[in-house]
Structure formats: C-alpha cells, structure tokens
C-alpha cells in the first residue's frame, strides 16, 4: 500500500508513532523490538520525533535492538560522513538505548574480514528473532540500503560497489565525488525482505520518477526497489511531491 501525506513532517510523525507503538507493545510483553534503521536525509525527522517522544512522553529504548542498513567502506566511525556518527547525532546520543544493542556495519574491517562480518551480521539478526520493522529510504538509482541496480532479490549482507549516481548524490557530504568511497557494506535485498514490516519513505519531487518506477514499474534488477512489490509487508509512505507521478 501507498500512503501519501501533505508533507514530510506529518508523515515522519506518523512513522515515529508506529515505531513507538511497536516498542511499547513489545515492552508490555517483556520482549525486545528489533529495528532496521536507515541513514540519509529522509529519516531525520522520524528520529527527531522519536527523540521528542523519549524526552516528553517517556518512550524508553531499553528494549530496542537496532541494525543499520549500511555503512560506507572504508569508513572510520569518527569521520564526519560515517553512518555511526550520523546515528549518534540524530538518535542514539539522545535516547536511553543500550549501546551494546546498536549494530552498524563496520567500515574499518580489513578486506579479508568482511565476509565473516557480513555472515555474523545476518546471524545476529536471526538469533534475535528477525527484524520487526525495517525503515527504508530510496536512492535515485532505485537502491534500497546500498543495493544498487543489478542486486539479486535474495542477496544478503555484503560488500558492494556504489553506483556513479549514488556517489554524485553523496558528493556534497564529502566535498567532491572523488572523495566518496567506492564501496559500502549493506544488508541485502533478501535481508530486508525478511523483516516482518517494511516502511519505505520518500519525500521531495526529486524522488518522484524513481518512486513511480518502484511502485508501478516492472520488476527489474535495474530498479532494486521494484522487488518490494513482491512483499505483502511493505508500505510506501510518501509526501505529495514524491507521489506526484503515480497514476
Ligand atoms: C541509507 C540508505 C540509502 C538511503 C537513500 C536515500 O542508509 O540505505 O538507501 O536511504 O540513498 O537517501 P536520502 O534519504 O539522503 O535521500
């Protein structure tokens, strides 16, 4: 299903409310909530609203376990562009989550350690009972996570090469495209698919063409987000400009 909101703020508040409800329902049952998280511009207001709910409405994250979708490779956690730093600044530094419950792909690994790391990332998610909810943005290439065109529907967590357009879109953060890492570690399409609920968010008319392809286009490895059409557990949450090309 597709839900369209007048603007990103209203949409983000609705998404944060769903996350908060999941966390509280799990708390009531004495269980953990296992969340798959995204970085980038799109989820920033969701995280801000979660921080507000923590501060003003006593939402606790003590029972929350998180797995981030991706990280650039190579990447030092302290670097300005690292997704570790992004998550700390946007969310983790402001809530009561147990640091041991945070998982983000490790951009500091040596090449030969990456495969074992990716296998253990998948295994850890499974041991915890799988992702209850995965939050996604969408790149202009149609990527979800950093699953660029050509990604297999059953792909797992792995090292990937970033698409040229993705690197161009990240150029501003890195002070030039030549400084954007060529690679990333990302959860796979298959990893994302196993989540019990998936929410893909997109704001802005710049995303309208790729949103149209993702929602209405033919299934294709050229637009990895089209695979989401195969899942019954996906909701596309859009603002009006991002939804403007949908029929
Ligand atoms: C980020 C991620 C990416 C972004 C996508 C959109 O963890 O996995 O797929 O969601 O590139 O980025 P923004 O939100 O910056 O437009």
Task: Please describe what this structure looks like.
It contains eight helices and ten strands. By secondary structure, it is α/β, with parallel strands linked by helices. It has a single domain, classed as Rossmann fold, CATH 3.40.50. The strands form two sheets. The protein has a seven-stranded parallel sheet, sandwiched between helices. α2 links the parallel β2 and β3 (64-68). α1 (8-28) packs across α2 (44-57). The longest helix is centred in the first third of the chain and has 21 residues, at 8-28. It starts with a strand and ends with a helix. The model has no long low-confidence stretch (mean pLDDT 98). Fructose -6-phosphate (F6R) is lined by residues 38-42, 69-70, 137-139, 143-146.
Name some characteristics of this structure.
single chain; 247 residues; alpha/beta; Rossmann fold; seven-stranded parallel β-sheet; three-stranded antiparallel β-sheet; 10 strands; 35% helix; binds fructose -6-phosphate
CATH class: Alpha Beta
CATH topology: Rossmann fold
Based on DSSP secondary structure assignment, what is the total number of beta strands?
10
By DSSP (H or I, 4+ residues per run), the number of helices equals 8
Kindly report the average pLDDT value: 98
Low-confidence parts, pLDDT < 50 over ≥5 residues?
none
- Amount of helix: 25-40%
**Count of all domains:** 1
Q: How far is it from the N-terminal to the C-terminal residue, by CA?
A: 14 Å
Residue fraction in strands: 15-25%
- What does the overall shape look like? globular
Largest sheet: 7 strands, parallel
Radius of gyration based on Cα positions: 17 Å
The CATH architecture can be named as 3-Layer(aba) Sandwich
Structural class: alpha/beta
Order of helices and strands: EHEHEEHEHEEHEHEHEH
């Amino acid at each position: 299903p597709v839900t369209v909101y007048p603007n990103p703020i209203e949409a983000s508040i609705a998404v944060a409310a769903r996350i908060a409800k999941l966390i509280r329902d799990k708390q009531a049952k004495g269980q953990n909530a296992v969340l798959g998280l995204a970085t980038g511009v799109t989820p920033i207001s969701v995280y801000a609203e979660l921080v507000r709910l923590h501060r003003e409405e006593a939402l606790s994250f003590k029972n929350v376990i998180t797995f981030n979708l991706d990280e650039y490779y190579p990447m030092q956690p302290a670097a300005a562009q690292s997704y570790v730093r992004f998550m700390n600044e946007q969310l983790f530094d402001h809530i009561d989550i147990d640091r041991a419950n945070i998982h983000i792909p490790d951009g500091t690994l040596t090449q030969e350690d990456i495969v074992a790391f990716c296998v253990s990332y998948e295994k850890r998610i499974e041991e915890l009972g799988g992702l209850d909810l995965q939050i996604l943005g969408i790149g202009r290439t149609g990527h979800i996570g950093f699953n660029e065109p050509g990604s297999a529907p059953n792909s797992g967590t792995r090292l990937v090469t970033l698409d040229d357009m993705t690197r161009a879109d990240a150029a501003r953060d890195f002070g030039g495209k030549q400084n954007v890492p060529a690679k990333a570690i990302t959860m796979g399409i298959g990893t994302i698919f196993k989540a019990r609920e998936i929410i893909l968010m997109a704001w802005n008319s710049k995303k309208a063409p790729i949103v149209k392809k993702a929602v209405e286009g033919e299934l294709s490895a050229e637009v990895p987000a089209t695979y989401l059409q195969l899942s019954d557990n996906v909701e596309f949450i859009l603002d009006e400009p991002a939804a403007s090309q949908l029929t």
